[in-house]
Amino acid sequence: MSVWAELTGQREAIAVLRAAAGVDPGRAGSAEASDSPASAPEAGGAGNAMTHAWLLTGPPGSGRSNLAFAFASALLSHAGPDGDEATDRQVQARTHPDLSVLATEKVIITIDEVRELVRSAQYSPSVGRYRVLVIEDADRMTERTSNLLLKSLEEPPERTVWVLCAPSDADLLPTIRSRVRTVRLTVPTIDDVAELLVHRDGIEPALAEQAARHAQSHIGMARRLATNAEARARRDETLDLVLGIRSISAAVLAAARLVQIATDDGKAITAERDAEEREHALRSLGVEPGGTIPPALRAQLRALEEDQKRRATRSLRDGLDRILVDLLSLYRDVLMLQLGSDAPLVNREREAALGEIARASSPAQTLKMMDAVAEARTRIDANVNPTLALEAMLATAVPAVAA
């Protein structure tokens, strides 16, 4: 089966990367990077279809990482641009000797992590056609960290390929952008995502369509909503809370509850993994479960706990952002109803309640609320206290829902 088979909604981007993966490494030069949209697979001609550094951009949930690893599989395989099953299994397990991956679960990518990756880039491929280095969420690098990566992009070792992933090329330094070839992903359609859930995960079609619609074509979130009843319940509670606000005091209480929902959602994602990591660390240090940890080993466990705390911080922020995106979909639906648009509703199941809000408020009020949600996202990303940011946002909602 082709390594591209389970990707959805990115036909043009796949064409660009598949063509590049088909170039013989001996003919693949470090051609000057070009800002090539995915809609032009022939950009640059056959001679520079392959280059040493790529940037895959697209909105969250568009499948950037999945496409990056499919590309890595095709580059590493000796079987051609469609790859082979054995190599793909190694890539998916992150165990291929010629693949290095930097995927931070913290708020930022540290300079030490990039320094280690740059060091590994100097090794020649051992079994694959190339050495491939993937950086997920490359937008989480600080300027200093990006400059360290820049040196490696300027003088790439032979048969080394960098694949960076970010929401937008504007999220990276201009000097980085000038040394990579950009492939832009589009937002998959709801039908594409639903079809993927049905065929890949065996989800019932009606649930797959609902999950894809509620996730607004975010592939990862759609899968989670389709396979996790608790995630669906938390989303429903979020929308119910906001629809039920009738006063400032209710807005304050709702803000606290939304933070708790995001916290619970983050714990659901990280708790099991944290426990597994701790158990593995103790086992590797020779400590029996429940046994006393020798003082000499406590520093190593503290380092693990610090990493887990940083991951929990990012998980909370991601959970809050998911809530705010859901709220944006709610007010987007209200606006569509107010404007008499024929565009399909994201929250179709709540059309009656949304209609009441639409009749009780004006499009200007709805836009004001959407601006407040966007402002809350910006404040939380800037490390403002989440509860205060949500209280300020929801206070704006009171006139819209209580008028």
UniProtKB/TrEMBL annotation:
Ranges where the record places region Disordered: 25-45
Protein name in the entry: DNA polymerase III subunit delta'
EC number in record: 2.7.7.7
Positions in coiled-coil regions: none
UniProt keywords, alphabetically: DNA replication, DNA-directed DNA polymerase, Nucleotidyltransferase, Transferase
Protein's UniProt keywords contain Transmembrane helix: no
Composition bias type Low complexity, residue spans: 28-43
Residue ranges of domain DNA polymerase III delta subunit C-terminal in the record: 323-394
EC class (word): transferase
Keyword check for Nucleotidyltransferase: yes
A Pfam family hit: DNApol3-delta_C
Reaction equations catalysed: DNA(n) + a 2'-deoxyribonucleoside 5'-triphosphate = DNA(n+1) + diphosphate
